Amino acid sequence: MLSRAERIKFRMRGGLIPAVPVPRYEDGEVHEDAQAAYVAYLTAQRIAGVAVWVHTGRGLHLQREQRQSILQAWKEALKPNQIIVAGVGALPESSLSIRERIERWKRESMKMAEDAISGGADALLVFPPIILRELPAQEREKAVVQYHEDLAQLGTPLVVFYLYEKAGGWSYSLDLLRKLLSLPNVIGVKLATLDSVMTMQTIARLLAVEFPNHLHITGEDRMFGYALMRGAHSALVGLGAAFPNIQADLIAAYRDKNYARFIDLSERVDGYAEATFNEPMDKYILRMLHCLAVAKVIPGEAACDIAGYEITEQELTAIRRAIIEYRLY
Predict the structure, then answer these.
(1) How far is the CA of 35 from the CAs of 272, 284, 317, in angstroms?
(2) DSSP codes, 176-206
(3) What secondary structure letter does DSSP report for 58?
(4) What are the per-10-residue average pLDDT scores of the chain (329 residues)?
(5) For a tag on the chain, would you pick the N or C end, based on fewer CB atoms within 10 A?
(6) 174-181 vs 137-152: helix axis angle to the nearest 10?
(7) Is the pTM of this model over 0.85?
(8) 8 A C-beta contact, residue 54 and residue 125
(9) What DSSP state is assigned to residue 160?
């Protein structure tokens, strides 16, 4: 019989897992009707599951009750073979001393992980613990390993998150990645390097050569097709929040060695990404919500984010053009 970790890996392999945003009113409150409509729309698409509480959903900024409500809504709507990956982490309290700040952050992170597990999450995606960079240099990597080990001991499959530093990530060394990937219950790594193709290639090779049984989960919205060519088994991307079927078909085309279809779909998905994932990069969440509004999944009043950005007419025009030009579905 397969272990729980192996079952989750099997269900993720070859699939698309959208990182889902949270529709909001202009004042930042969750738009409950739009949230329900979005859940109904996305769970009817060809997805392997969803990722909640991650950056696309502003997971670290959600109140605990909001997180639990969002997780429950997705859990109730997903099919039995679809999974939920939940982001885990915490925002540091800047008023405390370094050691107190880290201890409080870790307690809150562990509580978030426990809430995810009790709510039915199938796997945890670990936000890079950048607070640990405040420790003396000789302590940092050991603390990162210990943190992941503590999470792994909760017994739920764990995904390491390699996120580029400009987005609040940590450029883990290869030696540190080896230690993290060797922990029990760690099933793979999500790679989001944005524009560092060399970094993506190096880690892809590490996974292929030294950890062939672990999942290479791409988070490369701007290198989607190429990441598959470099060994990615599945995708966990914000780009999947709207029009996920074309991306699911892109993954399937590569796995089926239907390369003519793969090239066509890859070019179209690249065009879509170029219209939505551009500077300021953090604004992609607002752009994805507007994709959903243009597609009439959610009302326009629900296409709001808490970061304070405003969509421009130029961006809306680019989104509408991309939907038509790249034949998104």
Answers:
(1) 23, 18, 25
(2) HHHHHHTSTTEEEEEEE-TT-HHHHHHHHHH
(3) T
(4) 90 98 97 98 98 97 97 97 97 89 97 98 98 94 98 98 91 97 97 93 98 98 97 98 98 98 98 96 97 98 96 96 98
(5) N
(6) 20
(7) yes
(8) yes
(9) E
